[in-house]
Write a structure and sequence with these properties.
Number of strands: 15
Helix content: under 10%
Oligomer: single chain
CATH architecture of one domain: Sandwich
Largest sheet: 7 strands, antiparallel
Structural class: mainly beta
Radius of gyration: 17 Å
Amino acid sequence: MDSVISMTIAPVTHDLGGFKVHRTLPSKQRTMVGPFIFFDQMGPARLRPGDGIDVRPHPHINLATVTYLFAGAIDHRDSLGTFQRIEPGAVNLMTAGRGIAHSERSPAEERAAGPELDGIQTWLALPQAKEELEPGFEHTPAAALPLVEGDGVRLQLIMGEGFGIQSPVTQHSPTIYAAITLSPGRH
């Protein structure tokens, strides 16, 4: 049987003081996969009591970010006036377009015990015709994302269409993005 794996990319790990971010894209071997230009895995980590993540306000242009958590919570604020908490299984899509600034922080009520953090944040290139879109923010709760389960496999479709289901999350370029969990012994 011929292998369908054409390349394996090892992430570069950055210790951000209390938690690690593993960046798979961009890499020397591959700068993009489809519209995905950055692929960051945050954690898994349990931060010290009193600590949290504090990503100060910063700008983005001409791209979209997708945040998906497996554990923990992050409060998102942006220059559109949006305040949204993201929790496990939900999706935050921020479309920067012509420009947006945002911050990401651990919720205040979770800091006393030491917040948990485990998730993925991806940055997607916008097609050239959409680079100057009005900025926007979209939150999709976990219950609104389609789910397929069976035979030791759980697939939550974050973005795109496949497996007989379609995600309600806006996609600016055709893609498929899913969180797949396999039971022990499945591969």
